[in-house]
Specification:
Blueprint lengths: L5 E7 L6 H14 L4 E7 L6 H11 L3 E6 L5 H11 L4 E4 L11 H9 L4 E9 L3 H17 L8 E8 H9 L7 H8 L3 E8 L11 H15 L2 H30 L7 H34 L6 E5 L6
Parallel strand pairs: 1-2, 1-4, 2-3, 5-7
Antiparallel strand pairs: 3-8, 4-6, 5-6
Helix pairs in contact: 9-10
This protein binds uridine-5'-diphosphate (UDP) and magnesium ion (MG).
């Protein structure tokens, strides 16, 4: 059997309201491309009817494949599972809530045919509410300045990757997967396509604010050691200031008759230093925690059921 040319990787966590519409629009677009394709649905431990719906779809359409994880592992591990099992020459990663429009795929494919190994969507507009929009834009710009790898701003995981790139990402041993960062790190010819990011078709966002913050943090920590340098810099600065103030205090004592009053001053200096120390220990802790995760070497996800995929695990 010849393998598919295109794979679409779709992480699913309680998306029963979106599945019918997603499947319909995706199938329209993929059939328009007139080449063999597969839709790799990765169920990330859904508690609703998502898995059953995917199985029903599979009964009527061989292109539908299912990877069910043994529990909810999170979005990035779910996408990683899809990337590991997808067989296509080009692999498209997209969200399953129709925030990533299937209509963009032909544009990705065209760029791929022109010879780009990675084509990613740049979110030109978002419909999330002002605060969230602002936070997203700010985060991507901060990351750009902190990261040693050039990670394009305003681009998420919605992208097409060539087989070569997917194989390379699959082979990376790291467990903290910030896929849009790893994708940029791999290199080759990459380009962006401007897209609109509509709001969710149905259902509530599955990323809580806390998990979004964790994702942002893992982006920074996995791609930058600048927070550690910031801790060092802070240490240097505070040491320098305290050294200067010692000189001033000694001089006042030796050359004047003034006495320096000051429980309040002492207390606030102590508190300030305590704060600085906790902050820097915290920064250090973020890195140590990640080292801990890496050395444990647990697999990134566990597959409980795979339907229609050749390299079943
Ligand atoms: N998702 C997942 N596991 C999770 C959380 C989310 O597989 O633990 C999937 C979800 O079903 C969706 C995609 O990841 O297809 C993006 O999630 P969501 O729409 O909640 O994120 P947002 O659009 O707010 O970034
Ligand atoms: Mg979404």
């Amino acid at each position: 059997m010849v393998g598919p040319v295109f794979s679409v990787v779709l992480p699913i966590y309680n998306e029963q309201e979106n599945l019918p519409e997603l499947y319909r629009r995706l199938t329209d677009v993929m059939q328009g491309l007139a080449q063999p394709y597969e839709l790799v649905f990765v169920d990330d431990g859904s508690r609703d009817d998502s898995v059953k719906m995917i199985k029903d779809l599979r009964a009527g359409d061989e292109a539908v494949k299912l990877v069910a994880l043994s529990r909810n592992f999170g979005h990035q591990p779910a996408v990683s599972a899809g990337l590991a099992l997808a067989a296509g020459q080009a692999v498209i990663v997209m969200d399953s809530d129709l925030q990533d429009s299937p209509d963009v795929i032909p544009m990705f494919v065209q760029k791929w045919r022109e010879g780009y190994q990675v084509v990613y969507a740049i979110r030109q507009t978002r419909h999330e509410g002002m605060l969230k929009n602002f936070a997203y834009r700010l985060f991507y710009r901060i990351l750009k300045h902190l990261s040693e790898t050039e990670i394009p701003v305003d681009s998420g995981d919605f992208s097409l990757m060539d087989r070569r790139v997917v194989d390379l990402i699959n082979r990376l041993p790291e467990k903290t997967r910030y896929i849009r960062g790893l994708r940029a790190w791999v290199g080759f010819k990459q380009t962006g396509v401007l897209v609109d990011r509509p709001s969710r078709h149905a259902g509530a966002p599955k990323y809580t604010l806390y998990r979004l913050i964790l994702l942002a943090l893992s982006g920074v920590i996995s791609f930058s050691v600048i927070p550690l340098r910031f801790a060092t810099g802070l240490g240097v600065l505070v040491s320098f200031l305290s050294f200067a103030s010692i000189i001033v205090i000694v001089a006042i004592r030796l050359f004047t008759t003034l006495s320096i009053p000051g429980f309040a001053a002492t207390a606030s200096i102590l508190l300030f230093l305590g704060g600085v120390q906790l902050l820097t220990v915290g920064i250090l802790g973020e890195y140590v925690g990640r080292i801990f995760d890496e050395v444990k070497g647990r697999p990134l996800f566990i597959v409980s059921e795979a339907l229609g995929l050749e390299n079943d695990r």
